[in-house]
């Protein structure tokens, strides 16, 4: 969208509607602000009043559509980052980032055919299937992560869904990590309502289940699990009162509109996810997406900024792919509203920058780890 066209659309936003069932005062007004009279230029000869456009009469999120999201995504880069940073400051400490650690508690042999995944049994990637880890090892690793500054411990298993015989072990892992004073997160595949309730009862704080991409592009990436299946699991997680961690992957050959539609879907859930991981595809030899073209770094930053604007109270996590990002790209992402990362040398089976490199980057940027009480 041309700059002037985007500016005109945003300037006229208050005279239009989000959709057929929503009033004008809901348009881009979901978020309260304490900065009175703050305005910003969004294009030539146009101004965007943050107070006017980011407040809500009833405090509920708007029903976003692609037109609005695309207009914000297409703003001049500096204006988009200013808007995202303004919203970020209204909801979070601008110089603190939440640190999580991720462990693969059961690796490889997954029956799903996700085209990006090294752990799928459908592809020859060199990843060997392993059994579920024992509880003591997981708790020992969590203690090391806590001592290294992580406040949340995430545990992932390469399953379509957990089997009943594994639930007792998984529950013991949750209880053991919680006893260390850490938040817990798991990603175990699809859950039914009973499984979700059992995890909640064990003390699980977050459940991760990504939608991966837009509903339109989803079938190009996965055939063994539907988009609706993923939404159903998210519904079960919400129904039992757990927090949701849900995001997606960019750089899988999708269009710009697919990335935007993915965020529209997330923002339009009954409650937006508390944690939104944005992954940059790590091409894995042997998978169908091994030769996918890399996403432009500026486009990646735009997606992070759009996620911050559309889901202002969610933690936006820079997840997989940071090893391929320059320090400058990561710095722009933090300015655009990213405020969570995975620390450690590995993410499941992929490389990660490691604590030393992250600590050095944080020192250069003046960023400090987010404390548990503020999350």
UniProtKB/TrEMBL annotation:
GO terms for biological process: biotin biosynthetic process. Keywords: 2Fe-2S, 4Fe-4S, Biotin biosynthesis, Iron, Iron-sulfur, Metal-binding, S-adenosyl-L-methionine, Transferase. [4Fe-4S] cluster binds at residues 110, 114, 117. [2Fe-2S] cluster binds at residues 154, 185, 245, 317. The keyword Transferase applies. Pathway: Cofactor biosynthesis; biotin biosynthesis; biotin from 7,8-diaminononanoate: step 2/2. It is an enzyme of class 2 (transferase). It catalyses: (4R,5S)-dethiobiotin + (sulfur carrier)-SH + 2 reduced [2Fe-2S]-[ferredoxin] + 2 S-adenosyl-L-methionine = (sulfur carrier)-H + biotin + 2 5'-deoxyadenosine + 2 L-methionine + 2 oxidized [2Fe-2S]-[ferredoxin]. Homodimer. The gene is bioB. NCBIfam families: bioB (TIGR00433). PROSITE patterns: RADICAL_SAM. The lineage of its organism: Bacteria, Pseudomonadati, Pseudomonadota, Alphaproteobacteria, Hyphomicrobiales. Residues 95-313 form the Radical SAM core domain. This is Biotin synthase. Belongs to the radical SAM superfamily. Biotin synthase family. It comes from Mesorhizobium muleiense. GO terms for molecular function: 2 iron, 2 sulfur cluster binding; 4 iron, 4 sulfur cluster binding; biotin synthase activity; iron ion binding. Gene3D superfamilies: Aldolase class I. Binds 1 [4Fe-4S] cluster. The cluster is coordinated with 3 cysteines and an exchangeable S-adenosyl-L-methionine. Catalyzes the conversion of dethiobiotin (DTB) to biotin by the insertion of a sulfur atom into dethiobiotin via a radical-based mechanism.
């Amino acid at each position: 969208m041309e700059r002037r066209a985007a500016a005109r659309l945003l300037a006229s936003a208050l005279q239009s509607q989000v959709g057929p069932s929503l009033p004008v005062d809901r348009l881009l007004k979901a978020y309260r602000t304490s900065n009175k009279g703050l305005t910003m230029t969004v294009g030539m000869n146009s101004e965007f009043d943050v107070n006017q456009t980011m407040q809500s009469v009833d405090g509920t999120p708007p029903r976003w559509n692609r037109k609005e999201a695309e207009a914000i995504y297409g703003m001049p880069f500096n204006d988009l980052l200013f808007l995202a940073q303004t919203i970020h400051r209204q909801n979070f400490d601008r110089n603190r980032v939440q640190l999580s650690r991720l462990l693969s508690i059961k690796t490889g042999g997954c029956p799903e055919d996700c085209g990006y995944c090294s752990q799928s049994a459908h592809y020859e990637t060199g990843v060997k299937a392993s059994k579920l880890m024992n509880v003591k090892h997981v708790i020992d690793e969590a203690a090391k992560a806590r001592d290294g500054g992580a406040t949340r411990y995430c545990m992932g298993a390469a399953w379509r869904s957990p089997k009943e015989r594994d639930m007792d072990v998984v529950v013991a892992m949750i209880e053991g990590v919680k006893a260390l004073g850490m938040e817990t997160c798991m990603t175990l595949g699809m859950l039914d309502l009973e499984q979700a309730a059992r995890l909640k009862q064990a003390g699980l704080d977050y459940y991760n289940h990504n939608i991966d991409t837009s509903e339109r592009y989803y079938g190009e990436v996965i055939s063994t699990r539907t988009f609706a299946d993923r939404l159903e699991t998210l519904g079960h997680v919400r129904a039992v009162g757990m927090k949701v961690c849900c995001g997606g992957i960019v750089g899988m050959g999708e269009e710009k509109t697919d990335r935007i539609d993915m965020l529209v879907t997330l923002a339009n859930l009954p409650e937006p996810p508390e944690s939104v991981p944005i992954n940059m595809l790590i091409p894995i030899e042997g998978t169908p997406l091994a030769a996918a073209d890399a996403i432009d770094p500026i486009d990646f930053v735009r997606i992070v900024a759009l996620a911050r604007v559309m889901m202002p109270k969610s933690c936006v996590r820079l997840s997989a792919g940071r090893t391929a990002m320059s320090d400058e790209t990561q710095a722009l992402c933090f300015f655009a509203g990213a405020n969570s990362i995975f620390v450690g040398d590995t993410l499941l089976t992929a490389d990660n920058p490691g604590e030393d490199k992250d600590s050095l980057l944080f020192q250069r940027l003046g960023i400090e780890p987010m404390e548990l009480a503020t999350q």
